[in-house]
Amino acid sequence: MRQADFAQGARIGVLTTQPLGRVLDYRAPEGGCCLGDYVEAPLGPRRVLGVVWGPGDGAFDAARLRPVGRVLDLPPMRDELRAFLIRAGDYTLTSLPAMLRLATRAPGLGDPPASRRVYRRGHGEPERMTDARARVMDALDAMGGGALTLAELTQAAGVSASVVKGLVAQGIVAEVEAPRDTPFPHLDPALPGHALSAGQQEAATRLRAAVATGAYGTTLLKGVTGSGKTEVYLEAVAECLSHGRQALVLLPEIALTAGFLTRVQERFGARPGEWHSGVTQTERRRVWRMVAEGGAQLVVGARSALFLPFRDLGLIVVDEEHDTSYKQEDGVLYNARDMGVLRASLCSAQVVLASATPSLETWANAEAGKYARLDLPARFGAAELPEMQAIDMRAEDLPSNRWISPTLQGAVAARIGAGEQALLFLNRRGYAPVTICRACGHQIGCDDCDARMVEHRFLGRLVCHQCGAEKPIPQACPSCKAEGKLAPVGPGVERLAEEVAEHFPDARVAVLSSDLFASARALKAQIEAIAEGGADIIIGTQLVAKGHNFPLLTLVGVIDADLGLQGSDLRAAERTFQLMRQVAGRAGRAERPGMALLQTFQPEHPVIRAILSGDEEGFWRAEAAEREAAGMPPYGKLAGIILSAPEAQPVFDHAAELARRDGPLRAVGAVVFGPAPAPIARIRGRHRVRLLVKAPKGAALQPALSRWVRQLRQPPNLRLVIDIDPQSF
Ligand code: ADP
Ligand code: ZN
User: Fold this and answer.
1) Fewest 10 Å CB contacts: which of 117, 239, 504, 515?
2) Which residues make up the binding site for Zn(2+) 2 (predicted)?
């Protein structure tokens, strides 16, 4: 029996997941309870999940205190996670209940661990294979020997229960009673990995030594694409596991996890726990419990895995640390990279930030000596970095509504003629970004957003990329009613596919764009098919820039290298530099040398020149100097405040009044800019206005921000969101 911190009937404070914003007082239940215990707390007529947070602040009349319901059969929340939720909440200006919700995102956490009926692959193939049956088999095969409940299986396969039962009757699918929440298979850190190159070995040794200290530290692992960063950080994982501690690997994209799981299996003999939006509800519950109990040594996941209740977390790897998808853009606005560093510092863990093109923030932290830095300057084995060249579009003879220059066409023809693959990169989903009326000049926009509708020809519809609204492509102009005058303007990947088909009628073309895949699984299958040579020409959005490995790919053609340089965003240069070098890095990952061609109208632009020259350190130094001179991150603090409401004027007035009452900000040396229309001035019918607050590095910005916004009463339909370290500014 464990010693209770609070005897039965004692006053306790319980943090619940309900948005009341504070810790509520209760009485300890029968048998008492401990700090960190997960409990069921009665709240009005309901019972909600809570955590015993402290002795209670006495604000409640003792006579009215209710006892909490039962203590859930879960390991109590550790001090480290509690401290993390508090600190991360303070940093992002998020209430504690909202932080607790992030940390308990698994259904039925308190349910007893009874057994349940599940389905897994049996033996043989069905006598008669139908589409529905094939989908059931696919869904089960995707589980790699794992099992699904009937509800999960029918949903994943899109079939009725009778299809599954039919397969059970034939023995093709097995129906079994399985205990819930079983531990994950053991990962063996002593299994030998690949023989490492000298450079890899040195980096691995340093990372192992860092992990072996058992103390906090952060290392930037900077290696060109294909240098074997994954091999190297798996050594750090091995070291961590060998000390009996847990490890977490964060990846920016679910589609990448499949390949990573295979590599973990090869390296450690079993697959790790997974935590991302594609994981079933029952599996989430299992992962959560096993992470808490120590039955999961390694978790690979998306950013929210940071909030799992690790028993003893010793290592966090953030792969592709520069990736913008680490920044959560709705709900709690946090950057998983930065929060990972915070959590590691609270639980004496090491952090490895891996990237070929680090964020300026991470680069600067390494320069300043706050992070260690390890470099892998060469590709593994015989692979060479691709040569990069500009195609000066001013000198190319290209008809309007065509985007592949003769020079690029020639290069593609040569590569596919040699049995290799070419990738054409265009960061624009759909067919055409604009649909314009040739009679009156009207551009078709979204009814609810300040955005143009994008034609998606495969869907036969216009789609708003802000709110997802769709409408059919009209015959007549909605403004002047002229018939047959609407025309697509500008290229998207679907339109590029048309042009490719004209130039290369015999080539096999694959379009990789997130909207063209119904599921992560379908996308993964396509990526595998391409890797095995199932396409000659790949057309892709930024989806392909991330760590996929296409051994036959030797040419990357960037359709519009200038695209990201437009607009006023201070991060545009950094983003373009990272994206272009990542995309180029897809070429020549195996024995055959690669080449990247960038179509540009401004080859003398400093960012384009930096991309081509490969002088990364020079680029970062110049960027850093500019940011420092402007007092911008990472040399100063920045917060974006987005105010929105159905009517434009009240939002603007509220923002203007806040800007006037800047006393609390000036008190900490901060200044406010704006109000100005937000980069997208209307989304889903709400008008949006932005204020930017800039403060010196050492300023206590967050408390000043809360004092500042609390000065004004918020009208009920006005929403105010504070974004610390905004992605664009
Ligand atoms: P990065 O993450 O830096 O892009 P990867 O770790 O994915 O690089 O390695 C690139 C390719 O080289 C992968 O196919 C990987 O299996 C292979 N590779 C890297 N290091 C080794 C090694 N030491 N032995 C064998 N293959 C390796
Ligand atoms: Zn819209």
Assistant:
1) 117
2) 446, 449, 464, 467
